[in-house]
Amino acid sequence: MAPPDDGSDLPDDPVIRAGEYALGVLEGEELAAAQREAIAGGDFAAAVAWWQQKFAALAEEAGSLVPSTGVWNAIALRLPSRATDEVPTPAHPAEPSGIGGWKLLAALATAAAIAAAVTLFVATPGGPPRPVEPVTREAGPQIIAQLQSEDGESRIASRIDPDTGRLNLSIAGLTPEDEARSAELWVIPEGGAPRSLGLIPGDGEVTRSLSAEEASLLIEGATLAVTHEDRAGAPHEAPTPPILLAGPLSRL
């Protein structure tokens, strides 16, 4: 007859090991390794916390269980310091004597706890938290333009994500001296008329969603441009010369 499977061939499951750590049955290097993982946080620490919560609830439901006199007598019969014909019957359950008694109780308690843990693990919907593999989305093609003045003091770095319909701008040196005026961004389609994309700050970062019409214009081959315009009446129908910055959109 083949020997019973003792589980030694089972793969190391971090969730089960977290339960063993929470239960306090790990020893030696296994205990030290589990302590390091628990301190480090992450999925293992979350699983330990889950087990501790479940064990605490289990202990509350079980209440205080005291072994009967018969159990203590059976333990006493197995202790070398007692004669088999001198087994006392204590009025109240006494503590076990000798190392053997404690080992037996510890073994019984551990076996019961492990059995309860396995039952709890199987019966609890969802179980403890398992590591979740990150879902990564590959970035699609980006549309970019780099606009810069000859002296390099005024510039815009733009990026359009066609998948999300978002426009990102990094702007510097475009604040006009006249406070009544502001920088205005334009897109000029190939062979088409300029279309205003609205006023933009003279410095800083801008991120906004594009309308369907704007997204259809901001494609490879079109041109981005910047002018200074009156704040009143924006967005304007056409740009006012001079063109401060201009540059083509290209696919990255």
Based on DSSP secondary structure assignment, what is the total number of beta strands? Answer: 9
Strand content range: 15-25%
Low-confidence spans: 1-11, 91-104
Radius of gyration: 37 Å
Q: Please tell me what the overall shape is.
A: rod-shaped
Proportion of residues in helical segments: 25-40%
Structural class: alpha+beta
H-E order: HHHHHEEEEEEHEEE
Number of helices: 6
The largest β sheet comes out as:
5 strands, antiparallel
Q: Please, how many domains?
A: 2
Alpha-carbon distance between the two ends: 68 Å
Q: Could you tell me the mean pLDDT?
A: 77
The neighbouring-strand order within the major sheet is 6-3-2-1-9
What does this structure look like?
- The chain has 252 residues and is an alpha+beta fold.
- The chain folds into two domains: 14-123, no CATH class; 143-251, Immunoglobulin-like (Sandwich), CATH 2.60.40.
- Helices cover 34% and strands 21% of the residues.
- The protein has a five-stranded antiparallel sheet with strand order 6-3-2-1-9, with no helix packed on it. It has a four-stranded antiparallel sheet with strand order 5-4-7-8, with no helix packed on it.
- A hairpin with a 4-residue loop joins β2 (155-161) and β3 (166-172).
- Mean pLDDT is 77; it is low at 1-11 and 91-104.
What is the structure about, briefly put?
It contains six helices and nine strands. Helix 1 packs across helix 3 (42-62) and helix 2 crosses helix 3.
